[in-house]
Amino acid sequence: MNLDPQIPDGPIADKWDNHRFSSKLVNPANKRKYRIIVVGSGLAGGAAAATLGELGYQVDCFCYQDTPRRAHSIAAQGGINAAKNYQNDGDSIHRLFYDTVKGGDFRSREANVYRLAQNSTNIIDQCVAQGVPFAREYGGLLANRSFGGAQVSRTFYARGQTGQQLLLGAYSALSRQIASGQVQMHTRHEMLDLVKVDGHAKGIITRNLVTGSTDAWTADAVLICTGGYGNVYYLSTNAAGCNVTATYRAHRRGAGFANPCFTQIHPTCIPVAGDHQSKLTLMSESLRNDGRVWVPLDGKNCDKNPNDIAEELRDYFLERKYPSFGNLAPRDISSRSAKEACDESRGVGPGGRGVYLDFADSISRLGESAIRERYGNLFQMYERITGENAYKRPMRIYPAIHYTMGGLWVDYNLQSSVPGCFVLGEANFSDHGANRLGASALMQGLSDGYFVIPYTVGNYLASTGAGTISPDGPEVKEVLESVKERTSQLLSISGKKSARSYHKELGQIMWEYAGMARNATGLQKAIGEIQDLRDHFQKNLLVPGTGDRLNVELERAGRVRDFIDFGELLCRDALERNESCGGHFREEYQTKEGEATRDDENFAHAAVWEYKGEGKTPVRHKEELQYENVKLAVRSYK
Amino acid sequence: MKLTLKIWRQTGPTENGSFESHVLDDVSEDSSFLEMLDQLNEQLLKQGNEPIAFDHDCREGICGTCSLTINGYAHGPENSTTTCQLHMRKFNDGETVTIEPFRAKAFPVVRDLIVDRSAFDRIIQSGGFISVRTGSAPDGNSIPISKVDADKAMDAAACIGCGACVASCKNASAMLFTSAKAAHLNLLPQGQAEKDARVLNMVSTMDDSGFGNCRNYGECSAACPKDISLDYIAKLNRDHAKAKIKEIFS
Questions:
Q1: Which residue in A115, A282, B3, B105 has a CA-CA distance of 20 to 30 Å to A107?
Q2: Which fold has domain A266-401?
Q3: Residue-wise pLDDT tens digits, A89-104
């Protein structure tokens, strides 16, 4: 597997400039001869499709939703980082770069991250010009806030719905290209396979989710922008439809999958209420600015009304363990501490998986109206979901899977190990290392889509020449037939269990053994259990109806089948990474105080998995990560 | 709790649909409305029936995918709430709940409770954007925008494009949606250059898509999960009149 990262020469600040200059260009008159497929219409895919259409390429864009405006980027609340330094508080491109590499626990690629920080400023300009209604100060200039523990105020935001507003910006640009005929939009289409001809990505197979028709689409390049795989845990903050199928299918066709074990857990989500639960809801982390996290000292008091538990019988465990950061300790550390408290049978609420986030002190200090002003919408959302009034009774929170840093391996050009197949946004692995900082996901999606891919895909196309292959060619037909075969196989099992029930079982295995804390014994057990689950699935799955029309259960079955295989890969990756770093915490590798122990000597690399065939063990390759501009250091939040 | 569900079933846009009744036991009051439907679908599967098709995605009230008319109300009887954020504790044990798709001529039924809202996309494609080339933007702070205007634009931009306004209007008018989308851009200095063409084109696409006329009943705003104000409809009418007059005299 060729894992040359293609990092340009020169000092880090000049790499992207040098690379843009040395990249080949496609003559404006020739651009219309090239077809590009974009899968996904979120920030990465929507921005890429709009920009490539605007440049003159012929673009086909696909999404599973009924309109491109609904991609899950829409749900991001907090904001988007940019090194504008409008606040004059010491920010710079280099500082954003440094914070991102350090926050990623030194498992991201320096050159990519630097470029991300460089592009961050252009993103804000672009979005403002599109009409994104960012928050403003009274003087009319853009407002900023500090977010996710950053020491500078570099986060731009649009109330609590920054993701929606940025996505609507990209969607409006995309709509303009659809109207002009440069982009053909295919909604309610799901990518089910990647087509390769002579080793290069030349097309995809989709299923039309309304008519059931399975079709081949060919092009000169394929861009996969299909987001993360958090739903492998069944319960996550991801949208119900988010899935790993597009990236996993590309992986099966030769695209290396990097660091699947790097998953992020968000500490402030509403806990699971019961077996009916289909998703978890995130509440902004900003709540921790005014809330104090605690559990009863003694597990016997867990069922008591929290307001009746005396102060001395409470354990404010974050304040106790991390006196300088207290309730604002980073996401991974706060999450693990909550889990530990619940593992000691001191958790609260249904199933004992929850901790209190208590605003009583802030309310008595600042008054209820001040708290209402800051968090009114969150308290309202909490009440809607739980039926509890958090002004009167502490909130209950618990960590949940939120974002996945791993993804398809890409080089500096965002090209996967399959030439011609590019991967953008959360679907790739490159920028966030082992842990993503708050307000950086939106930045990466838009940087990849607006500002990176137009150059790098042009360079690829200029060197391969136009010549979209016919959808009737033998290589295409073969993949098309295999997809149809797979669909009819799912329909023919005729067992008794629904795809959702398998998904739930998979989620339980993943959360138990590959969740917030992992160990070798558990991971081995998980791999065995997942293999058993797969066997059971193959024999007992029930998909009603037929494949030639809208069939939600069939869609789900295909996705769950890929989640099962992918879950096994994630566990293997977690098992092989014998260190704790970022979102990956291995219980065997921690200090006496319970802090993560990173192993830079043996694991300062991206682990890239190569698919070897059905039922065969995948092979682990490495891309060594070089740190020339940021000194490797231990993250400490004591 | 135990519920009787009267649910609309329809196999395709041209077939006739009808109500089907199901009894569902053991519904947790902590379930969301969609989780209750998940539970019903699992029950239907066990009974050898086909599950009910309905649209949903983020399940946190922001993507605008879910789209049910519940007991006659778009997104159910709660104010400022999408179907996915509606919880079963708002219903009573033993209650009969009627569930229909969003009904409008411009939103044909795809299957069961799923409707085709692509007419909204066509309205946006006809002018709901600011034409700006990627990479050609001036510095974000080069045009100061008063906080008041920015906030008003943001209020309009909060529309999630779910279509509850259309489903709740007896004329199935899309004025609240179109006006919010136009106002978001028309209120900002960046949106001025294309303002007139924008309103003329968006309104004309809206009319061509089969939406009815606005009679200022205000049901749309009452049903809107994001509380989009009727003021934007007034603004669209004003902007449209101005653009028309300019068109006549130009």
A1: A282
A2: Flavocytochrome C3; Chain A, domain 1 (3.90.700)
A3: 999 999 999 999 998 9
